[in-house]
Amino acid sequence: MFSSVGRVATRGMRMPFARQPVRNLTNAQGDTLAEFKAINAGAPKGDMQVTICGGGNAAHVCAGLLGARSHFNVNIYTPLANEVKSFNEYATADGVTVSVAGRGDVTGQVTHASQSPADVIPGSKLIILTLPAFAHESVLADIAPFVSPGAVIGALPARSFFDLACADKLGDKLKESIIFGLQTLPWACRINEFGKSATVLGTKADVDICTTPNPNNEVVEPVAEVLGDVFGLKLSGIDNFTAITLANTGQLIHPGIMYGRWASWDGAVLGEKPLFYQGVDEFTQEVLTDMSSEVLAITDALVEATNGKFDMSAVASLYDWLTRSYAGQIADESSLKSAFNTNAAYQGLTHPMIEAEGGYLPDFQARYLTEDVPYGIVGTCGIGKLLGVDTPTIDKVVVWAQTQIGREYLVDGKMTGADVASTRVPQRYGMTKVEEIFV
């Protein structure tokens, strides 16, 4: 049975986050870091080459916001010919206009878009993957031959174990690169016209960011300051990518709300699209709360198993994360349910649906399951299995979700399914001890 607890108790204050093994920066990494520091110091202009990998909602927002700054020359890499054509036809001529709630319109210029990484990756000091997590590894493999020494490479958001994906696909280029990842996407955003404009419906107040390497915090702080200023929010540096993995709230929210709404669905066609966040009910609140509690139990067990060597204090309850991230945008914080229902940034957003005769059916192939399960909650579940932590609600959601998307990850409570190799679960990389996941 699901518990009826409405919210999880607040965890302790965030601890200092510089506990990664200290690795000296290479000359190339140091040179790139100096450029970030110069931007933070108020340098009036620059010519840092930025390449955005992707063509979706977040890619449009990044292109507009970064392209509006005099410090950056923005390129776009997308393997889709129609997207390249649109970007080169519109974004390079008139720029991408981003309408940001509370800030007005921002227009940024794009220099060039290409299907070929050879055209836009060499010389890029900042490479941002604004892609579904299932595309991370293929894109990393595509760009790896062309990555220049000192490049800062990151994902919005990182999802599970982005650092392991980079280690696997970048090869020797990893040694000269700086890797970063955001816990979640900074905005709720939508494309208005492809290659021309997008709207930011809401911006989170605070999002966690991790970098590796990060000796004495000298990397994460300047990177967080530059990106936070451009993106319009606070980016808080945290210790390690395992904390980013466990703190990934998308892995709870998206599969959890989908399960809450559709697990007992009778298959009937709906006359309208149901609200996603504003439709969270008492049952779904219980599911989300139990999943969050189980993540905290995994986190506590991980800290104990590693004798507190790694700081995991960034992993908070879902309620605490929601109210911190959307401070000032939630009308009723009395419960997790009401916090979702009254969050202005979530207003009007619906479940992913497909049209059917007479109405709509749920789209179980949408990223809320196809991304946030194999590249989200399955990774966290895998850590739990390594630690022997009981996760009945997470297991139940994973088993239901894997059935909907036609995959197999969890079998009889073990991470031994036929499709584990297509996830970023630690077991996929042959890891059998929790210490191995801290790279």
Main features:
439 residues, alpha/beta, eight-stranded mixed beta sheet, four-stranded mixed beta sheet, 16% strand, disordered N terminus
Tell me about this structure.
The chain starts with 26 loop residues before the first helix and ends in a 35-residue tail after the last helix. The strands form 3 sheets. It has an 8-stranded mixed β-sheet, with helices on both faces. Strands 4-3-10-9 form a 4-stranded mixed β-sheet. Helix 6 (162-170) links the parallel strand 7 and strand 8. The chain is globular and about 55 Å long. It has 439 residues and is of the alpha/beta class. The protein has helices at residues 27-40, 57-67, 81-94, 117-120, 136-143, 162-170, 220-231, 241-247, 250-262, 282-305, 318-325, 336-341, 367-370, 373-387, 392-404, and strands spanning 48-53, 72-77, 96-100, 104-108, 112-114, 126-129, 152-155, 178-182, 187-193, 197-203, 206-212, 234-237, 353-356, 359-362. The chain contains 15 helices and 14 strands. Mean pLDDT is 91; it is low at 1-22.
**Termini separation:** 37 Å
What characterizes the major β-sheet? 8 strands, mixed
Given the helix and strand composition, which structural class is it? alpha/beta
H and E order:
HEHEHEEEHEHEHEEEEHEHHHHHEEHHH
Average predicted confidence as pLDDT: 91
Estimate percent helicity.
25-40%
Number of strands: 14
Strand numbers in spatial order across the main sheet: 5-2-1-6-7-8-11-12
Q: What is the assembly state of the chains in this entry? A: single chain
Uncertain spans, ≥5 residues at pLDDT below 50? 1-22
